[in-house]
Specification:
The complex is a heterodimer of chains A (568) and B (170). Chain A is of the alpha/beta class and 568 residues long. Helix content of chain A is 38%, strand content 16%. Chain B is of the alpha+beta class and 170 residues long. Chain B has 4 helices and 9 strands. The longest helix of chain B has 13 residues, at 58-70. The chains are: A alpha/beta (568), B alpha+beta (170).
Chain lengths: 568, 170
């Protein structure tokens, strides 16, 4: 037992969880914690310029490293500014710990304030209940160590997700006896790790007889670190691997068995092969509507096996034949062992031929020498310029879908994007978080001009805190994805998509102390990237592109994956 | 919703602030329709029981149970088998009494339904009645002819028959 303040108990508990970085912005109700951060701790605090930047950076840190990312804000507007990022982490199953200050609950020198609409009071517990795995508001110093342990345990296990701790100011300041334990209190939380063997046996029956099996790897396979197991399963089954958008990077996209992402803007080969398969092994995916398109024509000929860590995902969006609840990595191992005893070594010659044929015919990638700056040419070129372990983040919209189509991810945790929530402004702060987690690797944010403006203020953090990344702004002067939808689905009736006079991104970067450069051709782009990768400060590369450039092909709303169209 | 019918879900939850909010919020958020919800103590002072009746088909009910189970504060949850269930609801019914003739008619009905008269005034009676929702519906139907001034129903609480309870160990 030691006598300490709540704020110090919080910092020490975070240190016990091996936290090395907090992304945050302070304010009145979190001052005692900032006071405790002053000296005497190895935790690095990175000052964001907006709380949304802090929480996205924490998620970027988490997704690049696999370790929980921590962000902090004050009460009221500080806390509510975290909400978008918390919702983002919840949708994409990222382990993020959000710490917020709260007005005093009680105290000697302060009157009771919670519930009285005090200055900068917001009910952040109520607000974040549907977008966190759990949230806590410790009312005494003694509760803090157990609360922090429990928060980290819940955030990082099972299907990961964000957990929020809201700490009233008086509890931060109070001095009390504290015992640091490893205790976790979550009686109703017992994630399933090992698969049910009867279900595995049933899955083996289906897979052993399959002639045209396909594997669909979701974000859960990246979280579980199941890339090797995926490769082994693909080899054993002689099955191509498609991924969801969130699963991009789970399996190297330059391998012959990789067929790319499925979905509305998915790789045509992946969408086609899904529809032709007779057995689907889906792992760590929630069958998002953007991945499946119309569910009636989703893998219509396939027996479906669904492996997921979250039982609530099974049967939610897609009816499956064999549900298996379990960790992706462990389940794949168990399934592989059971299957290798059952499977005949018969070559699936026809299916292999068909996979090759579809990939060649429907590949969205070009092998021509690119002359004009098109997103396709630029992103194909970018892959050649970046090391294999470089981390790419994206914003949301056309830049994101072009990246999914044309930039091949070769390793897990190297492609980080806002999948479920589709949060514009995510990519740049996330790239900073990724760089902090992996300082020795190149980090590039593929942005659009619309998205980048949403969190561009984090350039100040990037320069001040010495976090050099590269931002590629695909600058078409419009909100491109919605413009494309207005073009395709609203008869070109453009409304509110023209960005008009955007800032000069080169000068904007320079005014923050970053490098700014413009690339009007592929050779210029090559030179800019090479220079940026060596630069000690963040570089913004402005690349003007055509404003009517589309992401094609796409599956119109309401249609199924096979109805992907290249025209309109 | 085809095959939608009233189903009873029993959840054992942590007895602490905010839990009812998470449960109610989940129903709103996922578009599940609560018909009634009751919360009360259990044999363990750290746990409460929430009994929810929902109108749902099987697929929706499966989601209700799984989504509830996903909440960290929900320790155990199950659908109660309609063929092996004890359900009770309590209603307090304030009934208009125009004359003494009607008063004795009402008292006769109350006796048949094994209710109790808990308050008497010159123009009204309050009846306490306990039973399955069907029984209470039938009693209320009868009372309509006299005029119901006010009604308070608790919503049902329920337990599965037999020795087994809601599994709270995994």
């Amino acid at each position: 037992m030691t006598k300490t303040t709540g704020a110090k108990a919080l910092i020490e508990s975070l240190e016990h969880q091996k936290v090395d970085t907090i992304f945050g912005i302070l304010g009145g109700a979190i001052l005692p914690v900032y006071d405790a951060l002053c000296g005497n701790t190895n935790i690095r605090h990175i000052l964001a310029r907006h709380e949304q930047g802090a929480v996205h950076a924490a998620e970027g840190y988490a997704r690049a490293s696999g370790r929980p990312g921590v962000c902090m804000a004050t009460s009221g507007p500080g806390a509510t500014n975290l909400v978008t990022g918390i919702a983002n982490a919840y949708m994409d199953s990222s382990p993020v710990i959000a710490l917020t200050g709260q007005v005093p609950s009680t105290g000697v020198n302060t009157s009771y304030m919670i519930g009285r609409d005090a200055f900068q009071e917001a009910d952040i517990i109520g607000i974040t209940t549907p977008i966190t795995k759990a949230n806590y508001q410790p009312r005494s110093v003694a509760e803090i160590p157990t609360t922090v342990n429990t928060a980290f345990y819940i955030a990082t296990t099972g299907r990961p997700g964000p957990v929020l701790i809201d700490l009233p100011k008086n509890v931060q300041a109070e001095v009390a006896e504290v015992e640091y334990t490893t205790q976790v209190v979550a009686r109703g939380y017992n994630p399933t790790v090992d698969p049910d063997l009867a279900q595995v046996a049933a899955a083996v029956e289906i897979l052993a007889d399959a002639e045209r099996p396909i594997i669909l790897a979701g974000g859960g396979t990246i979280i579980a670190g199941a890339s090797d197991e995926l490769a082994q399963m693909s080899e054993l089954l002689m099955a191509p691997i498609a991924t969801t958008f969130m699963g991009k990077g789970a399996f190297p996209e330059n391998y012959p068995y990789s067929v790319g992402c499925i979905g509305m803007h998915g790789n045509p080969a992946a969408n086609r092969l899904m529809s032709e398969s007779d057995a689907l092994l889906a792992i760590g995916t929630r069958f998002s509507d953007r991945a499946t398109a119309n569910t009636d024509s989703f893998c219509p000929n396939a027996k479906k096996i669904h492996v997921d860590a979250d039982p609530a995902e099974i049967g939610k969006n897609i009816d499956v034949d064999i549900p298996i609840v379990g960790d992706a990595k462990i389940t794949l191992r168990v399934l592989h062992a059971a299957l290798s005893q059952k499977l005949s070594k018969k070559e699936k010659t026809e299916w292999k031929k068909r996979v090759r044929e579809v990939k060649e015919k429907l590949s969205p990638l070009t092998n021509e020498v690119p002359k004009n700056v098109t997103p396709k040419a630029l992103l194909t070129e970018l892959r050649k310029l970046l090391p294999n372990d470089a981390i790419v983040t994206t914003e949301v919209g056309q830049n994101q879908m072009w990246s999914a189509l044309y930039f091949k991810a070769l390793k897990p945790r190297t492609f980080i994007s806002s999948g479920g929530l589709g949060t514009m402004g995510f990519g740049f702060p996330a790239s900073l978080g990724a760089k902090v987690a992996c300082p020795d690797r190149a980090v590039v944010d593929i942005a659009g001009d619309g998205s980048f403006l949403m969190t561009e203020n984090m350039l100040a953090t990037s320069i001040t805190e010495d976090i050099p990344v590269t931002v590629i702004v695909l600058n078409n002067s419009v909100l491109g994805m919605v413009a494309q939808w207005q073009r395709m689905l609203y008869k070109r009736r453009y409304m509110a998509v023209n960005l008009g006079k955007s800032p000069d991104f080169v000068k904007l970067a320079q005014s923050y102390g970053a490098e700014g450069t413009r690339a009007g051709s592929i050779p210029e782009f090559q030179a800019a990237i090479k220079k940026a990768l060596k630069s000690k400060v963040t570089t913004v590369i402005d690349v003007p592109i055509g404003s009517e450039e589309d992401v094609v092909p796409f599956v119109p709303p309401g249609c199924g994956l096979p109805q992907q169209r290249g025209d309109y | 919703m085809e095959n939608a019918k009233t189903r009873v879900v029993s959840a054992i939850v942590e007895n602490k602030p905010g839990v009812l909010h998470s449960v109610a919020n989940l129903f709103r958020r996922r578009n599940f329709n609560i018909e009634s919800i009751t919360v009360g103590a259990t044999e363990d002072k750290e746990l409460s029981r929430i009994t929810i009746t929902v109108n749902a088909d099987e697929k929706t009910l499966d989601q209700v149970v799984k989504q509830l189970d996903k909440l960290v504060d929900v320790v155990g949850v199950t659908e109660l088998d309609p063929n092996s269930i004890v359900t009770r609801e309590l209603a307090l019914v304030k009934i208009n009494v125009p004359s003494s003739k009607e008063r004795s008619d009402i008292i006769n009905c109350v006796q048949v339904f094994r209710g109790r008269i808990v308050d008497v005034s010159p123009e009204s009676l309050i009846v306490e009645i306990t039973g399955t929702p069907d029984k209470i519906d039938a009693f209320l139907n009868l009372m309509k002819m006299f005029g119901i001034i006010e009604l308070a129903r608790t919503g049902i609480t329920a337990l599965a028959r037999g020795a087994r309870g809601v599994n709270i160990d995994d």
